[in-house]
Amino acid sequence: xTTKTAKLLDGKALAEKIHQELSEIIRETQAKMGRSxxxxxxxxxxxxxxxAYVRNKERAxxxxxxxxxxxxxxxxxxQGEMEEVIAALNQDERIDGILVQLPLxxxxxxxxxxxxxDPDKDADGLHPxxxxxxxxxxxGLRSCTPAGVMRLLQEYEISLQGKQVVVVGRSIxxxxxxxxxxxxxxxxxxxxxSRSLDLGSITKNxxxxxxxVGRPGLITAEMIKxxxxxxxxxxxxxxxxTGQSRLVGDVDWQSTLSVAEYITxxxxxxxxxxxxxxxxxxxxxxxQKVKT
Length: 292
Prior knowledge:
Layout: E1 7-8, H1 11-33, E2 38-44, H2 48-64, E3 67-68, E4 71-73, H3 79-91, E5 97-100, H4 110-116, H5 128-136, H6 144-155, E6 164-168, H7 175-184, E7 188-192, H8 199-203, E8 208-211, E9 229-232, E10 236-239, E11 245-248, H9 253-256, E12 262-263, H10 270-291
Parallel strand pairs: 1-12, 2-3, 2-4, 2-5, 6-7, 6-8, 8-9, 9-12
Antiparallel strand pairs: 10-11
Helix pairs in contact: 1-10, 6-7, 6-10
């Protein structure tokens, strides 16, 4: 008897498609605007993971035709200096998106810096104004990872109407905004987290599980309903017995592959969609200026 294998929700392929769409929009619009869209990614310090993420974002910008105004600051840069940089970028007409790469050195107040960004240039969709627009169901720049998850589900024509969805994770980056987006799509949403008692009893009856906690292998086959949809937002670096380092998600991939109907791979699932939505937000902000 052949073992059934879940269908993959391929974020890498979809991100490539979005890059091509954005590239076409930019080509058609930049003559009218007299410039390309501009994204400023601000990084402080020498975190190797952050540096890799920033390089990835800058490469993606180049690919679609977004001008990159990235700036890298020394670890000792002060809160006041960073606020001045953001204030200048808010006024710079070449810049459509601003992103502060997290984490920041401990002496900097990340929330205060994010709040200084003009909400209409908030490429990460994390400003309180944009989160408020999401709560109210109004148009606005959306948090990149949750928006990426929703776009991925849409691409595979997965209806959320009336579905029981469990979001495992309650962060302001993913869990909370994603729950609101799912509600907007008429899903019935439960938010669980790392301290939920008997997590398996909560997830077992769900039509869809979205794992976003940052714990390798948290969701196992016994915790999911056969034929459900599993979206793995977790990105964790683990070292195996041979000393090899690799990326894994919050879902135990091998065991769930034969139980789920759809599943996202790690890497290659939600990760590429996050960057695609960052570019999408920047282009959305750029197009608003065309209309005005």
